[in-house]
């Protein structure tokens, strides 16, 4: 069944599946980042923004503009770490479930 981007389906537990997907993707990337033994300059930024993404997801109805901003910061922070590419792609896909930012944002 197709839905328009603005609509959301709620699971039996009352959780938007997009929120559940975002939380799962963020959790996965946070675990991958924690397991990574390599230090890099922007690791703290990535960790902070992943925490922000999780907090926005917990709110239940995150603002698309803020999600995309945090995603951009995470991507800029970990983009050169190939070991995190798959996890980052998962977070990007989860953010895209919320649709494009509104015009003018």
Features:
mainly alpha; 59% helix; 105 residues
Shape: globular
Distance between the termini: 30 Å
Low-pLDDT segments:
1-8
Roughly how many Å is the radius of gyration? 14 Å
Q: Report the average pLDDT across residues.
A: 86
Secondary structure: helix percent:
55-70%
Q: Class by helix and strand content?
A: mainly alpha
Strand content: under 5%
Brief summary:
With 105 residues, this protein is mostly helical. The chain has helices at 17-35, 43-58, 64-78, 85-96.
Q: What does this entry look like structurally?
A:
With 105 residues, the protein is an all-alpha fold. Helices cover 59% and strands 0% of the residues. It has helices at residues 17-35, 43-58, 64-78, 85-96. It is globular. Mean pLDDT is 86; it is low at 1-8.
Question: How is this fold's topology laid out?
Answer:
Elements: H1 17-35, H2 43-58, H3 64-78, H4 85-96
Helix pairs in contact: 1-2, 1-4, 2-3, 3-4
